[in-house]
Protein backbone atom coordinates (compact mmCIF):
# COMPACT_ATOMS: atom_id res chain seq x y z
CA UNK A 1 0.00 0.00 0.00
CA UNK A 2 1.18 3.49 -0.83
CA UNK A 3 1.68 5.46 2.39
CA UNK A 4 1.98 9.11 3.32
CA UNK A 5 3.73 10.48 6.37
CA UNK A 6 1.21 11.41 9.03
CA UNK A 7 3.89 13.20 11.06
CA UNK A 8 4.91 15.38 8.13
CA UNK A 9 1.30 16.09 7.27
CA UNK A 10 0.50 17.10 10.84
CA UNK A 11 3.52 19.38 10.98
CA UNK A 12 2.46 21.04 7.73
CA UNK A 13 -1.00 21.58 9.12
CA UNK A 14 0.19 23.03 12.43
CA UNK A 15 2.38 25.46 10.52
CA UNK A 16 -0.44 26.48 8.16
CA UNK A 17 -1.14 29.39 10.53
CA UNK A 18 2.20 30.42 12.11
CA UNK A 19 2.41 30.25 15.90
CA UNK A 20 3.17 33.97 16.04
CA UNK A 21 0.29 35.01 13.82
CA UNK A 22 -1.56 38.11 14.96
CA UNK A 23 -4.77 37.50 16.90
CA UNK A 24 -7.67 39.82 16.12
CA UNK A 25 -10.59 39.92 18.53
CA UNK A 26 -14.00 39.60 16.91
CA UNK A 27 -15.20 42.73 18.70
CA UNK A 28 -12.59 44.76 16.80
CA UNK A 29 -14.75 44.42 13.69
CA UNK A 30 -18.00 45.30 15.44
CA UNK A 31 -19.06 41.65 15.74
CA UNK A 32 -21.71 41.33 18.46
CA UNK A 33 -22.02 38.41 20.89
CA UNK A 34 -25.65 39.00 21.87
CA UNK A 35 -27.12 36.15 19.77
CA UNK A 36 -29.52 38.62 18.10
CA UNK A 37 -27.44 40.87 15.86
CA UNK A 38 -26.81 39.37 12.42
CA UNK A 39 -23.01 39.51 12.08
CA UNK A 40 -22.53 38.11 8.58
CA UNK A 41 -21.02 41.21 7.01
CA UNK A 42 -18.86 42.17 9.98
CA UNK A 43 -17.44 38.65 10.34
CA UNK A 44 -16.70 38.61 6.62
CA UNK A 45 -15.02 42.00 6.88
CA UNK A 46 -12.77 40.65 9.61
CA UNK A 47 -11.82 37.58 7.58
CA UNK A 48 -11.11 39.69 4.49
CA UNK A 49 -8.98 42.17 6.41
CA UNK A 50 -6.88 39.46 8.06
CA UNK A 51 -6.32 37.63 4.79
CA UNK A 52 -5.39 40.81 2.93
CA UNK A 53 -2.82 41.69 5.62
CA UNK A 54 -0.87 38.47 5.55
CA UNK A 55 -3.06 36.20 7.64
CA UNK A 56 -3.81 35.56 11.27
CA UNK A 57 -6.54 34.57 13.73
CA UNK A 58 -10.09 35.88 14.13
CA UNK A 59 -10.86 34.98 17.75
CA UNK A 60 -14.32 34.70 19.29
CA UNK A 61 -14.64 34.80 23.09
CA UNK A 62 -17.65 33.82 25.20
CA UNK A 63 -20.97 34.70 23.58
CA UNK A 64 -23.40 33.80 20.81
CA UNK A 65 -22.57 35.15 17.36
CA UNK A 66 -25.45 34.99 14.88
CA UNK A 67 -24.44 34.76 11.22
CA UNK A 68 -25.34 33.63 7.75
CA UNK A 69 -22.81 32.29 5.25
CA UNK A 70 -19.21 33.39 5.75
CA UNK A 71 -16.29 32.58 3.44
CA UNK A 72 -12.86 31.70 4.79
CA UNK A 73 -9.89 33.19 2.96
CA UNK A 74 -6.19 32.36 2.60
CA UNK A 75 -4.15 32.18 5.82
CA UNK A 76 -7.06 32.81 8.19
CA UNK A 77 -7.98 30.83 11.30
CA UNK A 78 -11.39 31.04 12.93
CA UNK A 79 -10.76 30.41 16.62
CA UNK A 80 -13.73 29.73 18.89
CA UNK A 81 -12.75 29.86 22.55
CA UNK A 82 -14.66 27.79 25.07
CA UNK A 83 -18.08 29.37 25.54
CA UNK A 84 -18.14 30.93 22.08
CA UNK A 85 -21.00 29.80 19.83
CA UNK A 86 -21.24 30.59 16.13
CA UNK A 87 -24.99 30.45 15.54
CA UNK A 88 -26.45 29.82 12.11
CA UNK A 89 -29.30 31.97 10.86
CA UNK A 90 -32.59 30.19 10.24
CA UNK A 91 -33.43 32.50 7.32
CA UNK A 92 -32.75 30.67 4.02
CA UNK A 93 -31.91 33.98 2.33
CA UNK A 94 -28.90 34.45 4.62
CA UNK A 95 -27.06 31.57 2.92
CA UNK A 96 -24.77 31.55 -0.11
CA UNK A 97 -23.73 28.68 -2.37
CA UNK A 98 -20.40 27.25 -3.48
CA UNK A 99 -20.62 24.81 -6.38
CA UNK A 100 -24.33 24.32 -5.74
CA UNK A 101 -23.92 23.79 -1.98
CA UNK A 102 -25.32 26.08 0.68
CA UNK A 103 -23.11 26.36 3.74
CA UNK A 104 -22.55 28.29 6.96
CA UNK A 105 -18.75 28.19 6.68
CA UNK A 106 -17.69 28.19 3.04
CA UNK A 107 -14.38 28.21 1.20
CA UNK A 108 -13.30 27.60 -2.38
CA UNK A 109 -9.75 27.49 -3.69
CA UNK A 110 -8.22 28.77 -0.44
CA UNK A 111 -4.96 27.77 1.26
CA UNK A 112 -3.94 27.53 4.90
CA UNK A 113 -7.35 27.85 6.53
CA UNK A 114 -8.34 26.62 9.97
CA UNK A 115 -11.29 26.32 12.31
CA UNK A 116 -10.10 25.63 15.85
CA UNK A 117 -10.99 25.89 19.51
CA UNK A 118 -13.31 24.43 22.11
CA UNK A 119 -16.30 26.49 21.03
CA UNK A 120 -19.43 25.50 19.15
CA UNK A 121 -20.81 25.92 15.65
CA UNK A 122 -24.58 25.45 15.87
CA UNK A 123 -26.49 25.37 12.57
CA UNK A 124 -29.96 25.31 14.21
CA UNK A 125 -30.68 22.88 11.42
CA UNK A 126 -34.18 21.79 12.33
CA UNK A 127 -35.64 25.30 12.26
CA UNK A 128 -33.53 26.22 9.24
CA UNK A 129 -34.66 23.13 7.30
CA UNK A 130 -38.31 23.82 8.10
CA UNK A 131 -37.92 27.36 6.82
CA UNK A 132 -36.48 26.01 3.56
CA UNK A 133 -39.44 23.64 3.39
CA UNK A 134 -41.80 26.55 3.94
CA UNK A 135 -40.34 28.21 0.83
CA UNK A 136 -41.26 25.06 -1.08
CA UNK A 137 -44.83 25.23 0.14
CA UNK A 138 -44.95 28.91 -0.88
CA UNK A 139 -43.77 28.02 -4.37
CA UNK A 140 -40.47 29.92 -3.99
CA UNK A 141 -38.21 26.85 -4.00
CA UNK A 142 -38.42 23.49 -5.74
CA UNK A 143 -38.22 20.23 -3.81
CA UNK A 144 -36.70 17.89 -6.39
CA UNK A 145 -37.19 14.81 -4.20
CA UNK A 146 -40.92 15.48 -3.71
CA UNK A 147 -40.54 14.01 -0.22
CA UNK A 148 -40.96 17.27 1.72
CA UNK A 149 -37.30 17.13 2.77
CA UNK A 150 -35.69 19.65 0.35
CA UNK A 151 -32.35 18.44 -1.01
CA UNK A 152 -30.60 21.82 -0.93
CA UNK A 153 -30.12 22.93 2.68
CA UNK A 154 -27.11 24.55 4.37
CA UNK A 155 -24.21 22.36 5.32
CA UNK A 156 -22.39 23.43 8.46
CA UNK A 157 -18.98 23.45 6.72
CA UNK A 158 -18.35 23.14 2.99
CA UNK A 159 -14.78 23.55 1.70
CA UNK A 160 -14.04 23.01 -1.98
CA UNK A 161 -10.62 22.76 -3.72
CA UNK A 162 -8.71 24.00 -0.68
CA UNK A 163 -5.20 23.12 0.49
CA UNK A 164 -3.78 22.84 4.00
CA UNK A 165 -6.95 22.72 6.07
CA UNK A 166 -7.24 22.12 9.82
CA UNK A 167 -10.50 21.59 11.70
CA UNK A 168 -9.61 20.94 15.32
CA UNK A 169 -11.34 20.70 18.67
CA UNK A 170 -14.63 22.38 17.78
CA UNK A 171 -18.14 21.18 18.58
CA UNK A 172 -20.29 20.87 15.46
CA UNK A 173 -24.02 20.74 16.11
CA UNK A 174 -27.36 20.66 14.38
CA UNK A 175 -26.58 21.02 10.72
CA UNK A 176 -29.52 21.44 8.37
CA UNK A 177 -27.95 18.91 5.98
CA UNK A 178 -24.54 17.21 5.71
CA UNK A 179 -22.39 18.52 8.52
CA UNK A 180 -18.70 18.71 7.53
CA UNK A 181 -17.89 18.34 3.84
CA UNK A 182 -14.52 18.68 2.13
CA UNK A 183 -14.63 18.39 -1.65
CA UNK A 184 -11.50 18.01 -3.81
CA UNK A 185 -9.32 19.29 -0.97
CA UNK A 186 -5.69 18.34 -0.30
CA UNK A 187 -3.74 18.14 2.96
CA UNK A 188 -6.53 18.04 5.53
CA UNK A 189 -6.55 17.28 9.26
CA UNK A 190 -9.75 16.83 11.26
CA UNK A 191 -8.83 16.29 14.89
CA UNK A 192 -10.57 16.16 18.24
CA UNK A 193 -13.98 17.33 17.07
CA UNK A 194 -17.28 16.54 18.77
CA UNK A 195 -20.27 16.26 16.46
CA UNK A 196 -23.97 16.00 17.30
CA UNK A 197 -25.92 16.27 14.06
CA UNK A 198 -29.10 14.25 14.16
CA UNK A 199 -31.89 16.79 14.13
CA UNK A 200 -33.02 16.31 10.51
CA UNK A 201 -33.02 13.86 7.61
CA UNK A 202 -29.84 13.16 5.69
CA UNK A 203 -27.51 14.61 8.31
CA UNK A 204 -24.21 12.97 7.33
CA UNK A 205 -21.37 13.47 9.78
CA UNK A 206 -18.06 13.84 7.91
CA UNK A 207 -18.08 13.58 4.11
CA UNK A 208 -14.69 13.36 2.42
CA UNK A 209 -15.30 13.87 -1.30
CA UNK A 210 -12.48 13.28 -3.80
CA UNK A 211 -9.80 14.47 -1.34
CA UNK A 212 -6.10 13.57 -1.03
CA UNK A 213 -3.83 13.35 2.02
CA UNK A 214 -6.37 13.35 4.85
CA UNK A 215 -6.08 12.51 8.54
CA UNK A 216 -9.16 12.18 10.75
CA UNK A 217 -8.43 11.34 14.37
CA UNK A 218 -9.63 11.42 17.96
CA UNK A 219 -13.16 12.53 17.10
CA UNK A 220 -16.73 11.67 18.12
CA UNK A 221 -19.46 11.67 15.47
CA UNK A 222 -23.17 11.21 16.17
CA UNK A 223 -25.21 11.65 13.00
CA UNK A 224 -28.62 10.75 11.64
CA UNK A 225 -27.02 9.60 8.37
CA UNK A 226 -23.62 8.08 7.53
CA UNK A 227 -21.11 9.01 10.23
CA UNK A 228 -17.81 9.03 8.29
CA UNK A 229 -18.37 8.74 4.58
CA UNK A 230 -15.99 8.77 1.61
CA UNK A 231 -17.56 9.86 -1.66
CA UNK A 232 -16.33 10.30 -5.21
CA UNK A 233 -18.55 12.66 -7.16
CA UNK A 234 -16.18 13.10 -10.11
CA UNK A 235 -14.90 10.39 -12.44
CA UNK A 236 -11.76 12.53 -12.85
CA UNK A 237 -10.92 12.54 -9.11
CA UNK A 238 -10.78 10.11 -6.21
CA UNK A 239 -10.26 9.84 -2.46
CA UNK A 240 -6.63 8.86 -1.88
CA UNK A 241 -4.11 8.55 0.96
CA UNK A 242 -6.48 8.81 3.92
CA UNK A 243 -6.27 7.63 7.51
CA UNK A 244 -9.01 7.54 10.13
CA UNK A 245 -7.80 6.72 13.62
CA UNK A 246 -9.21 6.61 17.16
CA UNK A 247 -12.73 7.81 16.35
CA UNK A 248 -16.15 6.87 17.74
CA UNK A 249 -19.13 6.87 15.38
CA UNK A 250 -22.91 6.55 15.82
CA UNK A 251 -25.31 6.67 12.90
CA UNK A 252 -28.84 5.96 11.75
CA UNK A 253 -27.19 4.78 8.52
CA UNK A 254 -23.62 3.37 8.35
CA UNK A 255 -20.64 3.93 10.62
CA UNK A 256 -17.90 3.96 7.95
CA UNK A 257 -19.00 4.09 4.33
CA UNK A 258 -17.27 4.18 0.95
CA UNK A 259 -19.89 5.55 -1.47
CA UNK A 260 -22.63 5.45 -2.32
CA UNK A 261 -21.51 7.88 -5.03
CA UNK A 262 -18.31 6.28 -6.29
CA UNK A 263 -17.44 7.63 -9.73
CA UNK A 264 -13.67 8.08 -9.43
CA UNK A 265 -12.87 5.76 -6.55
CA UNK A 266 -11.01 5.25 -3.29
CA UNK A 267 -7.37 4.19 -2.93
CA UNK A 268 -4.85 3.80 -0.13
CA UNK A 269 -7.13 4.25 2.86
CA UNK A 270 -6.56 3.05 6.43
CA UNK A 271 -9.27 2.91 9.11
CA UNK A 272 -7.51 2.04 12.37
CA UNK A 273 -8.70 1.56 15.96
CA UNK A 274 -12.24 2.93 15.80
CA UNK A 275 -15.57 2.21 17.47
CA UNK A 276 -19.16 2.13 16.20
CA UNK A 277 -22.36 1.88 18.26
CA UNK A 278 -26.18 2.11 17.90
CA UNK A 279 -25.88 2.12 14.10
CA UNK A 280 -28.81 1.27 11.84
CA UNK A 281 -26.91 -0.12 8.86
CA UNK A 282 -23.35 -1.39 8.45
CA UNK A 283 -20.36 -0.87 10.69
CA UNK A 284 -18.24 -0.81 7.51
CA UNK A 285 -19.50 -0.78 3.93
CA UNK A 286 -17.40 -0.42 0.78
CA UNK A 287 -19.22 0.04 -2.52
CA UNK A 288 -18.22 0.55 -6.15
CA UNK A 289 -21.46 0.94 -8.07
CA UNK A 290 -20.71 4.00 -10.23
CA UNK A 291 -17.55 2.96 -12.08
CA UNK A 292 -15.20 3.75 -9.19
CA UNK A 293 -11.82 2.10 -8.69
CA UNK A 294 -11.40 0.85 -5.13
CA UNK A 295 -8.17 -0.76 -3.93
CA UNK A 296 -5.68 -0.92 -1.06
CA UNK A 297 -8.07 -0.51 1.86
CA UNK A 298 -7.19 -1.57 5.41
CA UNK A 299 -9.72 -1.69 8.23
CA UNK A 300 -8.08 -2.80 11.48
CA UNK A 301 -9.19 -2.85 15.11
CA UNK A 302 -12.85 -1.96 14.70
CA UNK A 303 -15.22 -2.61 17.60
CA UNK A 304 -18.94 -2.26 16.89
CA UNK A 305 -21.87 -2.89 19.23
CA UNK A 306 -25.61 -2.75 18.55
CA UNK A 307 -25.03 -2.40 14.80
CA UNK A 308 -27.45 -3.97 12.32
CA UNK A 309 -24.77 -5.27 9.95
CA UNK A 310 -21.07 -5.87 10.32
CA UNK A 311 -19.51 -5.82 6.85
CA UNK A 312 -20.96 -5.18 3.40
CA UNK A 313 -18.82 -5.07 0.25
CA UNK A 314 -20.63 -4.49 -3.03
CA UNK A 315 -20.03 -3.80 -6.71
CA UNK A 316 -22.64 -2.77 -9.25
CA UNK A 317 -23.44 -0.75 -12.34
CA UNK A 318 -25.64 2.17 -11.39
CA UNK A 319 -24.29 5.55 -12.62
CA UNK A 320 -21.22 4.09 -14.29
CA UNK A 321 -21.39 5.94 -17.63
CA UNK A 322 -19.99 2.92 -19.46
CA UNK A 323 -16.96 2.63 -17.15
CA UNK A 324 -16.56 -0.59 -15.19
CA UNK A 325 -15.11 -0.04 -11.77
CA UNK A 326 -13.60 -2.58 -9.40
CA UNK A 327 -13.23 -3.43 -5.71
CA UNK A 328 -10.09 -5.31 -4.70
CA UNK A 329 -7.27 -5.65 -2.21
CA UNK A 330 -9.15 -5.06 1.03
CA UNK A 331 -8.04 -6.37 4.43
CA UNK A 332 -10.45 -6.35 7.36
CA UNK A 333 -8.70 -7.48 10.54
CA UNK A 334 -9.16 -7.53 14.31
CA UNK A 335 -12.85 -6.73 14.07
CA UNK A 336 -15.61 -7.51 16.53
CA UNK A 337 -19.28 -6.71 15.89
CA UNK A 338 -22.44 -7.41 17.87
CA UNK A 339 -25.61 -7.45 15.75
CA UNK A 340 -28.91 -6.96 17.62
CA UNK A 341 -32.25 -8.65 16.98
CA UNK A 342 -34.10 -5.33 17.06
CA UNK A 343 -33.67 -1.91 15.47
CA UNK A 344 -30.25 -0.64 16.45
CA UNK A 345 -31.15 3.07 16.35
CA UNK A 346 -34.59 2.82 17.94
CA UNK A 347 -35.46 5.92 19.93
CA UNK A 348 -33.17 8.37 18.15
CA UNK A 349 -34.79 11.52 16.77
CA UNK A 350 -34.44 10.55 13.09
CA UNK A 351 -34.27 6.77 12.78
CA UNK A 352 -33.23 4.90 9.68
CA UNK A 353 -36.09 3.48 7.58
CA UNK A 354 -37.79 0.23 8.51
CA UNK A 355 -36.34 -2.53 6.29
CA UNK A 356 -38.43 -4.36 3.69
CA UNK A 357 -40.17 -7.36 5.20
CA UNK A 358 -40.43 -10.27 5.53
CA UNK A 359 -36.75 -10.98 6.11
CA UNK A 360 -34.67 -12.53 8.85
CA UNK A 361 -31.53 -10.84 10.17
CA UNK A 362 -29.15 -10.31 7.24
CA UNK A 363 -25.61 -11.72 7.18
CA UNK A 364 -22.47 -9.82 6.32
CA UNK A 365 -21.91 -9.75 2.58
CA UNK A 366 -19.17 -9.78 -0.04
CA UNK A 367 -21.45 -9.47 -3.03
CA UNK A 368 -20.17 -8.66 -6.50
CA UNK A 369 -21.99 -8.82 -9.81
CA UNK A 370 -21.11 -11.23 -12.65
CA UNK A 371 -19.19 -8.63 -14.70
CA UNK A 372 -17.47 -7.03 -11.67
CA UNK A 373 -16.41 -9.67 -9.14
CA UNK A 374 -14.94 -8.49 -5.84
CA UNK A 375 -11.28 -9.50 -5.66
CA UNK A 376 -8.61 -10.24 -3.06
CA UNK A 377 -10.47 -9.74 0.20
CA UNK A 378 -9.09 -10.93 3.54
CA UNK A 379 -11.05 -11.23 6.79
CA UNK A 380 -8.58 -11.97 9.58
CA UNK A 381 -9.28 -12.22 13.31
CA UNK A 382 -12.94 -11.30 12.86
CA UNK A 383 -15.72 -12.09 15.34
CA UNK A 384 -19.37 -11.36 14.56
CA UNK A 385 -22.09 -12.15 17.09
CA UNK A 386 -25.61 -12.46 15.66
CA UNK A 387 -28.94 -12.99 17.42
CA UNK A 388 -29.74 -15.94 15.18
CA UNK A 389 -33.31 -17.14 15.24
CA UNK A 390 -33.87 -17.09 11.48
CA UNK A 391 -37.20 -18.79 10.79
CA UNK A 392 -37.92 -20.36 7.40
CA UNK A 393 -41.66 -20.12 8.04
CA UNK A 394 -41.29 -16.34 8.23
CA UNK A 395 -38.92 -15.82 5.28
CA UNK A 396 -37.07 -18.49 3.34
CA UNK A 397 -34.14 -18.74 0.97
CA UNK A 398 -32.68 -22.15 0.24
CA UNK A 399 -29.14 -23.16 -0.70
CA UNK A 400 -29.78 -25.37 -3.73
CA UNK A 401 -28.30 -24.13 -7.02
CA UNK A 402 -31.81 -23.21 -8.11
CA UNK A 403 -32.47 -21.24 -4.92
CA UNK A 404 -29.16 -19.39 -5.20
CA UNK A 405 -29.82 -18.57 -8.85
CA UNK A 406 -33.09 -17.00 -7.73
CA UNK A 407 -31.33 -14.28 -5.73
CA UNK A 408 -31.66 -11.16 -7.89
CA UNK A 409 -28.45 -9.48 -9.10
CA UNK A 410 -29.79 -5.92 -8.59
CA UNK A 411 -26.79 -4.45 -10.43
CA UNK A 412 -28.25 -0.95 -10.90
CA UNK A 413 -30.01 -0.23 -7.61
CA UNK A 414 -28.98 1.60 -4.46
CA UNK A 415 -26.70 -0.78 -2.53
CA UNK A 416 -27.53 -1.78 1.03
CA UNK A 417 -26.85 -4.99 2.95
CA UNK A 418 -30.61 -5.64 3.15
CA UNK A 419 -31.35 -5.03 -0.54
CA UNK A 420 -31.88 -8.74 -1.32
CA UNK A 421 -34.29 -9.18 1.57
CA UNK A 422 -33.76 -12.83 2.57
CA UNK A 423 -30.27 -14.31 2.06
CA UNK A 424 -29.41 -17.99 2.60
CA UNK A 425 -26.74 -17.57 5.33
CA UNK A 426 -26.96 -16.24 8.87
CA UNK A 427 -23.28 -15.22 9.10
CA UNK A 428 -21.62 -14.47 5.76
CA UNK A 429 -22.79 -14.52 2.14
CA UNK A 430 -20.19 -14.42 -0.66
CA UNK A 431 -21.09 -14.21 -4.35
CA UNK A 432 -19.24 -13.32 -7.57
CA UNK A 433 -15.83 -13.00 -5.96
CA UNK A 434 -12.19 -14.00 -6.46
CA UNK A 435 -9.44 -14.59 -3.95
CA UNK A 436 -11.39 -14.56 -0.68
CA UNK A 437 -9.55 -15.50 2.54
CA UNK A 438 -11.23 -16.18 5.87
CA UNK A 439 -8.50 -16.46 8.50
CA UNK A 440 -9.50 -17.02 12.13
CA UNK A 441 -13.11 -15.96 11.71
CA UNK A 442 -15.66 -16.69 14.45
CA UNK A 443 -19.40 -16.49 13.75
CA UNK A 444 -21.80 -16.85 16.67
CA UNK A 445 -25.60 -17.19 16.58
CA UNK A 446 -27.49 -16.63 19.84
CA UNK A 447 -30.40 -18.85 18.76
CA UNK A 448 -30.86 -21.68 16.31
CA UNK A 449 -31.19 -20.48 12.71
CA UNK A 450 -32.52 -22.46 9.75
CA UNK A 451 -29.71 -21.18 7.51
CA UNK A 452 -26.05 -22.25 7.43
CA UNK A 453 -23.39 -19.87 8.72
CA UNK A 454 -21.60 -19.31 5.40
CA UNK A 455 -22.75 -19.56 1.80
CA UNK A 456 -20.29 -19.06 -1.07
CA UNK A 457 -21.69 -18.90 -4.61
CA UNK A 458 -19.55 -18.34 -7.72
CA UNK A 459 -16.22 -17.82 -5.94
CA UNK A 460 -12.83 -18.42 -7.53
CA UNK A 461 -10.20 -19.07 -4.88
CA UNK A 462 -11.74 -19.44 -1.42
CA UNK A 463 -9.30 -20.02 1.43
CA UNK A 464 -10.63 -20.84 4.91
CA UNK A 465 -8.32 -21.16 7.92
CA UNK A 466 -9.69 -21.75 11.39
CA UNK A 467 -13.33 -20.81 10.82
CA UNK A 468 -15.41 -21.31 13.96
CA UNK A 469 -19.20 -21.32 14.02
CA UNK A 470 -21.36 -21.48 17.13
CA UNK A 471 -25.09 -22.05 16.97
CA UNK A 472 -27.34 -23.67 19.59
CA UNK A 473 -28.79 -27.04 18.56
CA UNK A 474 -26.68 -27.27 15.41
CA UNK A 475 -24.72 -30.44 16.06
CA UNK A 476 -24.09 -32.19 12.75
CA UNK A 477 -25.36 -29.22 10.74
CA UNK A 478 -23.50 -28.28 7.57
CA UNK A 479 -22.40 -24.70 8.27
CA UNK A 480 -20.53 -24.00 5.03
CA UNK A 481 -22.36 -24.33 1.73
CA UNK A 482 -20.44 -23.90 -1.53
CA UNK A 483 -21.88 -23.65 -5.02
CA UNK A 484 -19.69 -23.15 -8.06
CA UNK A 485 -16.64 -22.55 -5.89
CA UNK A 486 -13.15 -23.14 -7.24
Task: Please characterize this protein's 3D structure.
- The protein is mainly beta and 486 residues long.
- The protein has a domain at 266-271 and 285-486.
- Helix content is 8%, strand content 49%.
- It has four helices and 32 strands.
- The protein has helices at residues 6-14, 40-52, 125-137, 401-405, and strands at residues 23-25, 34-38, 56-60, 63-67, 70-71, 76-80, 84-88, 96-98, 101-108, 111-117, 120-122, 155-160, 163-168, 171-173, 180-183, 186-191, 194-197, 206-209, 212-217, 220-223, 228-232, 239-245, 248-251, 256-262, 265-288, 293-315, 326-338, 364-367, 374-388, 428-447, 454-470, 480-485.
- It has a five-stranded parallel barrel.
- Strand 29 (374-388), helix 4 (401-405) and strand 30 (428-447) form a beta-alpha-beta unit.
- The longest helix has 13 residues, at 40-52.
- The chain is elongated.
- The model has no long low-confidence stretch (mean pLDDT 95).
Question: Which terms would index this structure?
Answer:
486 residues; mainly beta; 4 helices; 32 strands; 8% helix; elongated
